[in-house]
Amino acid sequence: MAWVRPLAPITPVGIGALAWPHLKPIFQAIAAKAPDGAPCCDWVGEGGAGHFVKMVHNGIEYGDMQLISEVYHTFRDGVGYSDDEQSEIFAQWNKGVLDSFLIDITTDILRYKDTDGQPLLEKIRDAAGQKGTGKWTAISALDYGMPVTLIGEAVFARCLSSIKEERVRASKILAGPANSKFTGDKAQLVKDFEQAMYASKIISYAQGFMLMREASEQYKWNLNYGSIALMWRGGCIIRSAFLGDIKNAFDSNKSLENLLFDPFFQKATATAQSGWRNAICTATTIGIPVPALSTALSFYDGYRTARLPANMLQAQRDYFGAHTYELEAKPGTFVHTNWTGRGGNVHASTYDA
């Protein structure tokens, strides 16, 4: 059965809630279990809430996979690590803060040899497909005005991969940096990328929960974010030890506005910040594209900035289209200025994103 992008309530209110107490023992008995034995199945909410949460789960999955792929790309083409060497690096990462299903399977993929003894991974065409859930998440983010940038970049990265023949032609005529190989401390770079991966994952999940929060407010779903994180700890593609920290954050503060406001994640991003920036700078300097890692850091820097340059955007919109701008001293007051003295004083309509 094909999925429909769940932008609006799609089930009658009340029916699911009435049925759940009767179905709960059955579903939770057969569901995957988290490491502590908790069933990864629970009631999410009415009116399509479960579908929406599953969609966001899949969007985060897109982001996690893209982050891993960017690290692999940098290590392979920029540093010169073999697949076996990378497998060992990912295996070590899987023992720390990045402990997750996707890191685990990446270790196996990098290690796997074809019948001729060569890494099978390097024989796979670099053009990724998709079934749409990442795209739906990105579209929903735009519809709700939420900056879910990492998932968006992960979707666009797949789109870029799909124009393989065009990229091959571009590779022959477009210049890159003079030095495309890393010549510094490899051991330190591995540590930097581990921190970059970890911090970027935090951003991706923070963005995903921002989107669910906005949808929950619009549809009155009253989502239990701690319970959602609990459900994702087992039986899911994005299952990881990291989700336990997310559950703890929401359990300790039911009204937590954003994961980045939780003390644990504040400290984690602050600690990772130096390596995070170094990793992205290194990849950019040697010409390796890292769109997901980069947009995560850009979001972090934007989110922690009290005054962004959107005042310039508003002035420009008002100048060329009389769309008005909001005064800092009078929030909610929109005015139009005749910037040149030649235009009129009639303003156009505007909307909030």
TrEMBL record:
Keywords: Gluconate utilization, NADP, Oxidoreductase, Pentose shunt. GO terms for molecular function: phosphogluconate dehydrogenase (decarboxylating) activity. One of its GO terms (biological process) is D-gluconate metabolic process. It catalyses: 6-phospho-D-gluconate + NADP(+) = D-ribulose 5-phosphate + CO2 + NADPH. The keyword RNA-binding does not apply. InterPro entries: 6-PGluconate_DH-like_C_sf, 6PGD_dom2, 6PGDH_C, 6PGDH_Gnd/GntZ, 6PGdom_BS, Pgluconate_DH. Pathway: Carbohydrate degradation; pentose phosphate pathway; D-ribulose 5-phosphate from D-glucose 6-phosphate (oxidative stage): step 3/3. Belongs to the 6-phosphogluconate dehydrogenase family. Homodimer. This is phosphogluconate dehydrogenase (NADP(+)-dependent, decarboxylating).
